[in-house]
Amino acid sequence: MNDFNHVSEPSIDEAAGESPAATGVQLRLLTEHDLPAYKALRDTMLARHEHAFTSDADTERAREAASYRVRLHPQAGGKSLFTLGAWIDDTLVGVLTCEHENRQKVRHLAHLIGMMVDDGHQGHGIGGRLLRQALALLRREPLLETLTLSVTAGNEAAIALYRRVGFTRYGHLPRAIRLADGRYCAKDLMSLDLRA
Description:
Elements: H1 12-15, H2 20-23, E1 26-29, H3 35-48, H4 57-61, E2 82-88, E3 91-100, E4 109-117, H5 126-139, E5 146-152, H6 156-164, E6 168-178, E7 184-193
Parallel strand pairs: 4-5
Antiparallel strand pairs: 1-2, 2-3, 3-4, 5-7, 6-7
């Protein structure tokens, strides 16, 4: 398991219909060398979109870039299945992480966490490319059967993207996160059958 050394580009059919901005994007697994860029993107997104993340910006800003090493694939010294990045030239503009359970009874489950695309690059198909590439990688793993995620209820653009690639809602958690000003946000829980 966890043989994610090579990330192939989506097929021509998958790239069809995407904006020109998305076709200039390179996808690859993050390595330890990429952690400062990962932290910079994450810090920016957490600060701009408090409602979209369970983590808070102040706590995460205080972390060292190296502390995110656990999100890399095991061959890169991490503990996650992988973190996949979308790059335009030398700039990281999008990312997602896939984790899995090690306990025997739930080893068939994987979890998508921390998906983000920089504000200036949203709406160009980058999120879709990241998701499709992640699904292709996950489907190579014979033990994996189900992928889960949580998304802030009301984030219609993200929910629509997840539905387009096959996710369905299986639950709703009211008051899932409490923001700094005391407001609450609910989370929709979604899953996708990797063997369908």
